[in-house]
Amino acid sequence: MTTLDRLNDVFREVFDDDNMSVTRATSASTVEGWDSITHVTLMVNVEKAFGIRFSSAQIASLKNVGELVDLIETKTKA
Amino acid sequence: MLSIQGIADYPALGRLLELQLRLWPDHERFLSMRFAAANLAFADRVAALAERVTDDLERVATDYRWLCERMSDEELHFRRTGSYRLTTFEEANREVYSNAEYMQRYMNGVLLSHVWWDNHARVMEYYANSFLAKNREGYRHLEIGPGHGLLLYFAASDPRCSAATGWDVSETSIGATRGMLDRLGITRPVQLVRQNLFDASSSEARFDSIVISEVCEHLENPKLALEQLRTRLAPGGRIFVNVPINSPAPDHIYLLKTPEEGIQLVRDAGFEVESSVLFPMTGFNEQRARKMTVTISCVVVGTV
């Protein structure tokens, strides 16, 4: 299971949408309901799913799912 | 550029919006949600007041962004743990209240939150247009912790209010409130007193209208504070309690997890509940706010 696949599961749970399918290009501007609160909730759920921890700066700087995937893989390989 | 239908009729709001977005372009999406179905007239009124209380609106707007960033840090902790980061007054005093620069930036940010945050704006509108209007003619008014002075301004400028008083434990805050009221053109006497509401022996004053807004979540024992205020309410008097639910902030220490807990807090202090109104944070309706445990401003009007 790829990182993107596992992330997709997290997105489906947070957005309560079993049909959701994210790509590396997916961003807050392309997903309805992805506001600042949802973003923090999403990040905390990602932390729990992958056993990692983000800094506030990292959470604020992410531009799309692709950057999130890259950050997760950096942290999980560290 | 954000386009709000009818904004041309509200020049103060338009100016403030232009300034805020120049300083923080990424806030456009949030402000678009804010003004999707907002009362532009009241927002313009508050924006005009904000323009009057400061000589450096750019600094205030910069501090608003700073406040949002601090709130994001607290939100992250809250989402991770389900609790507020601080739990004692001593911690909040050490990190926030005793830091004059931090407090100034915080108060600047809170000032503009009453224009930019849906829940804060709607609470203020409800207070000004509904709560005060139902007070009896000649009401004697008390606000606990008047801070930026905007709520006290609405009471002090109400011709139906015979006397307006503010209590605060901080002489610095009292000075700031006095300055705000002066700049807002309040010429009638407003009694601003350094008074701890828990100190019953120093005052026997009674009031027909009391407001305690965004104070309870800063206290270790808000029920005790409300019980003290019940003894200050004259027969037939009304209290306006505004407490945020699930609202992580740098100096919030008392967590209420549901609106029902907020309403029960007022009942437990011995008040009859005249009414309660909920104002979810920007971009949320009540149902979604409850589901996602995001901030809801809970207003409870109590009587004795």
Describe the sheet with the most strands of chain B. Answer: 7 strands, mixed
Largest sheet of chain A: none
Strand order of the largest sheet of chain B: 3-2-1-4-5-7-6
Residue-averaged pLDDT of chain A: 92
Q: What quaternary form is this?
A: heterodimer
How would you describe the overall organization of this protein?
- Chain A has helices at residues 3-14, 36-50, 56-61, 65-77.
- Chain A is mostly helical and 78 residues long.
- Chain A has a single domain (3-77), classed as ACP-like (Non-ribosomal Peptide Synthetase Peptidyl Carrier Protein, Chain A).
- Chain A is globular, with a radius of gyration of 11 Å.
- By secondary structure, chain B is an alpha/beta fold.
- Chain B has a domain at 118-303: Vaccinia Virus protein VP39 (Rossmann fold), CATH 3.40.50.
- Helix content of chain B is 47%, strand content 18%.
- Chain B has helices at 11-23, 28-34, 40-53, 57-81, 89-97, 100-116, 118-131, 150-156, 171-183, 222-230, 259-268, 286-291; strands spanning 139-144, 161-168, 190-194, 207-213, 233-245, 272-280, 296-303.
- The longest helix of chain B has 25 residues, at 57-81.
- The interface between A and B is medium-sized, with 13 and 15 residues.
